[in-house]
C-alpha cells in the first residue's frame, strides 16, 4: 500500500521560519561578502604577495615563492635560536637557585651548635654535588 506524499520521509523543511529568516536572509548580502582586497590574486606568493617566479607548494596547497619561503624560514630559525638561548639561561639560573636552596643550612635555635654537625652538613652537600652538576651541565 502506497503511503501518502505528505507522510513520506524528508518532507519537512529542516529550518523553522525563524531560523530561515535569521540565517538565510543574510547570505550574499553586501556586509557578508569578502572584498577583493582580502583575497590573494592567483599566482601570487602568500608571504611576499608578489607574482611568483619560482613556485613552491605547501602540503596544504598554498603557493610560495622559493626565495621568500627560504628567507622566512631563516628569520624564524634565528628567532628560535634566540628564544632557546634565553630559555637555557633561565633554566641554568633556576638550577643554580635550587642548588643554593638545597645547600643552605640554618640550624634551629634549640639545637646546640657543635663541630660534630659540620661533617653531616658537608656530607649532605657532597652527596648532592653530582646531582647539582648534572642539573648545571
TrEMBL record:
It is found in: Nucleus. GO terms for cellular component: nucleus. One of its GO terms (molecular function) is ubiquitin protein ligase activity. Residues 23-75 form the Nitric oxide synthase-interacting protein zinc-finger domain. InterPro entries: NOSIP (IPR016818), Znf-NOSIP (IPR031790), Znf_RING/FYVE/PHD (IPR013083). Keywords: Nucleus. Belongs to the NOSIP family. This is Nitric oxide synthase-interacting protein zinc-finger domain-containing protein. It comes from Triparma laevis f. inornata.
Amino acid at each position: 500500500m502506497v503511503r501518502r506524499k505528505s507522510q513520506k520521509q524528508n518532507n519537512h523543511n529542516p529550518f523553522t521560519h525563524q531560523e530561515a529568516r535569521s540565517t538565510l536572509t543574510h547570505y550574499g548580502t553586501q556586509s557578508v561578502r569578502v572584498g577583493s582586497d582580502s583575497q590573494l590574486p592567483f599566482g601570487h606568493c602568500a608571504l611576499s604577495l608578489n607574482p611568483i617566479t619560482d613556485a613552491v607548494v605547501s602540503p596544504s596547497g598554498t603557493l610560495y615563492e622559493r626565495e621568500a619561503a627560504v628567507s622566512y624560514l631563516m628569520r624564524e630559525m634565528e628567532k628560535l635560536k634566540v628564544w632557546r638561548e634565553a630559555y637555557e639561561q633561565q633554566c641554568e639560573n633556576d638550577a643554580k637557585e635550587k642548588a643554593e636552596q638545597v645547600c643552605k643550612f640554618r640550624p634551629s635555635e634549640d639545637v646546640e651548635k657543635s663541630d660534630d654537625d659540620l661533617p653531616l652538613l658537608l656530607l649532605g652537600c657532597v652527596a648532592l654535588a653530582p646531582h647539582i652538576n648534572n642539573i648545571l651541565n
